[in-house]
Automatic annotation (TrEMBL):
<feature type="transmembrane region" description="Helical">
    <location>
        <begin position="148"/>
        <end position="165"/>
    </location>
</feature>
<feature type="compositionally biased region" description="Basic and acidic residues">
    <location>
        <begin position="480"/>
        <end position="504"/>
    </location>
</feature>
<keyword id="KW-0812">Transmembrane</keyword>
<dbReference type="InterPro" id="IPR020846">
    <property type="entry name" value="MFS_dom"/>
</dbReference>
<feature type="transmembrane region" description="Helical">
    <location>
        <begin position="171"/>
        <end position="194"/>
    </location>
</feature>
<feature type="transmembrane region" description="Helical">
    <location>
        <begin position="285"/>
        <end position="312"/>
    </location>
</feature>
<feature type="transmembrane region" description="Helical">
    <location>
        <begin position="206"/>
        <end position="225"/>
    </location>
</feature>
<feature type="domain" description="Major facilitator superfamily (MFS) profile">
    <location>
        <begin position="81"/>
        <end position="461"/>
    </location>
</feature>
<keyword id="KW-0472">Membrane</keyword>
<dbReference type="InterPro" id="IPR036259">
    <property type="entry name" value="MFS_trans_sf"/>
</dbReference>
<feature type="transmembrane region" description="Helical">
    <location>
        <begin position="434"/>
        <end position="459"/>
    </location>
</feature>
<feature type="region of interest" description="Disordered">
    <location>
        <begin position="480"/>
        <end position="547"/>
    </location>
</feature>
<feature type="compositionally biased region" description="Basic and acidic residues">
    <location>
        <begin position="535"/>
        <end position="547"/>
    </location>
</feature>
<dbReference type="GO" id="GO:0016020">
    <property type="term" value="C:membrane"/>
</dbReference>
<feature type="transmembrane region" description="Helical">
    <location>
        <begin position="80"/>
        <end position="101"/>
    </location>
</feature>
<feature type="transmembrane region" description="Helical">
    <location>
        <begin position="352"/>
        <end position="377"/>
    </location>
</feature>
<feature type="compositionally biased region" description="Basic and acidic residues">
    <location>
        <begin position="1"/>
        <end position="10"/>
    </location>
</feature>
Length: 547
């Protein structure tokens, strides 16, 4: 090894030469401390990360905090009052309206974005696809998560993201955001099963009818508002209005929506999706309702899609504003439906109301189809009777299927809504195609076929039949138990055949079911209040059941 002798005072020492010396010196030198600037920069990054975490933590804490008037108390369950019913209907209607604001203004969107009509026509299709994805993947979480923070979170997220639709000037960005907000617009389908949980069985149909009326009303009001506002000001005013309404809904739900325990805490998400498929093999009444919903919803979307072509052409030549206001006719039928549900649906088995609703729809479609080409009275009567009949049948179907599995109501609702959504897609596609080939009479005749198929599905299985086909059990349409939702025994309607009956109504009627769910999965009882209630629950005598 090469070395250099260096004199140092009275002696000399040997050191490595050239690079070897530098290498050894570097390895023997202790690690240098970072500079002051680097330390300050590192501290600043850490503070920013902590700030971000604290912002998210504060947002989560605010979202999950429950006002005292909304907190769950197993000894005093919340009463599902009329004001709460109206709030749910308002929230459902103006949330689902997000999907339909763009329908009357597609021509204005094409002009503003500088594209062809064919390109902006993709927006409604993309939003329907997003809504379908939300139905399939988000709605089952309603059985897994507490619905109050889940619903409020989705509404808040949708409202915040909606701001992008108000500001963007790029069609691609507008379409992408439209898809995402459509996915999270499924909150009405999370609220409907909650109505089934909160409302007493004896008035469940009436409570559901009010919310479903709000839901269907939102579809029509969205078109009317959008067409009217955009006729006088810019189309962006419609989206700014929707942005404000979404935040109003968020605040109202956060202040007044009652808390309710998760019915299946800890259950595997993929197991929930698989269980939805299994339900269709276990419950004939669910399959019957899904098929009837599919065939019943197809004429609805076919009518409202092709009606624009009929009224804009000879002999009517109506303006877009007049065509938009035509949707007000359907509102009358929807306002009648809750009255019918309260006076008739709650007294008879759901089977009766489904058949009656389908008969009204069939009558309206026949009148509108075969007289609509020479008098506007035909489409007017069709809109009135078909909307009333469609809603009546849907309410009755929901009332019957919510009784099959009280622990899986969101899964049951998901199966029903996916079938209904498929019917809407079929109706839109078939209506446009047949109208182009055979005109108004041709598309209307197809709707007659759809409704006839729905009637055959209902007639094939009676109200007391336990198997897939037949009328075993009798032909009576009167409820055997007026306090139950499906007209059968209240025990079976609320809890299933093997669950003991709880004499309380409303939320209290499901109390034992919720306790059993927690016991089956080895979790703490979901009936205990979120706000430090383990000790209070023990004092109140609420204990876990073991199965």
């Amino acid at each position: 090894m090469l070395t250099n002798d260096i004199k140092d005072g009275g002696g000399c020492r040997t050191v490595p030469a050239n690079g070897e010396a530098a290498a050894r010196t570097a390895t023997s030198r202790p690690a240098e401390h970072p500079s002051r600037d680097e330390a300050e920069q590192s501290e600043g990054v850490e503070e920013k990360e902590q700030g971000k975490q604290s912002i998210w933590k504060r947002a989560y804490t605010t979202l999950t905090w429950t006002p005292p008037n909304c907190r769950w108390d197993p000894d005093k369950p919340p009463q599902f009052s009329m004001s709460m019913n109206v709030l749910f209907a308002f929230a459902a209607g103006f949330t689902v309206a997000n999907l339909y604001y763009n329908h009357p203004i597609l021509n204005l969107l094409a002009i503003d974005f500088g594209v062809r009509y064919e390109q902006v026509a993709q927006i409604p299709t993309v939003m329907q696809a997003g809504y379908a994805a939300g139905l399939l993947f988000l709605c089952p979480l309603g059985d897994l998560l507490p619905r109050r923070p889940f619903v409020c979170g989705l509404v808040g997220f949708t409202a915040t993201l909606w701001l992008g639709l108000c500001l963007t000037s790029d069609l691609g960005t507008f379409t992408a955001i439209s898809f995402i907000v459509a996915v999270t617009t499924v909150t009405p389908q999370l609220m409907l099963p909650l109505v089934g949980d909160l409302a007493p069985p004896s008035r469940r149909a009436a409570a559901l009818s009010i919310v479903v009326s709000g839901l269907m009303l939102g579809v029509l009001v969205a078109r009317v508002l959008s067409g009217t506002i955009s006729n006088f000001v810019t189309w962006r005013a419609v989206y700014w209005m929707a942005f404000a309404i979404q935040y109003i809904i968020f605040v109202l739900l956060w202040l007044f929506m009652p808390d309710y325990p998760a019915t299946n805490p800890g259950m595997n998400y993929f197991r929930i999706l698989l269980d939805i498929v299994k339900m269709l093999f276990r419950h004939p009444v669910l399959v019957q309702a899904c098929l009837a919903g599919l065939f019943c919803s197809a004429p609805f979307t076919s009518f409202w899609t092709t009606l624009t072509f009929l009224l804009a052409d000879d002999p009517y030549n109506y303006s877009s504003l007049t065509i938009g206001l035509f949707g007000l006719i359907g509102i009358a039928g929807m306002l009648i439906s809750p009255i019918y549900a309260r006076t008739v649906t709650d007294r008879f088995v759901p089977h009766f109301s489904v058949l009656f609703g389908l008969a009204c729809s069939l009558l309206g479609i026949c009148l509108g189809t075969y007289t609509g080409t020479f008098t506007v009275a035909g489409p007017v009567l069709q809109a009135l009777l078909m909307d009333f009949g469609n809603q009546t049948a849907q309410i009755a179907n929901r009332s019957s299927i919510y009784s099959v599995e009280p622990k899986r109501r969101n899964g049951v609702n998901t199966a029903f809504m996916v079938a209904t959504f498929c019917g809407q897609l079929i109706g839109t596609a078939a209506g446009n195609h047949i109208y182009a080939a055979a005109g108004w009479v041709g598309s209307g005749s197809a709707s007659v076929g759809f409704i006839s198929a729905a009637i055959l599905v209902i007639v094939a299985r009676g109200p007391w039949e336990e198997k897939w086909v037949g009328w075993r059990g009798g032909w009576s349409m009167i409820k055997k138990d007026k306090d139950s939702a499906d007209g059968k025994t209240a025990d079976k309607a609320m809890h299933g055949p093997n669950v003991p009956r709880d004499e309380e109504v409303g939320v209290g009627a499901n109390e034992k079911v919720l306790q059993e769910v927690a016991a089956e999965q080895g979790h703490e009882s979901p009936l205990r209040s979120e706000n430090g209630s383990e000790e209070n629950s023990k004092e109140d005598g609420i204990e876990e059941k073991k199965v």
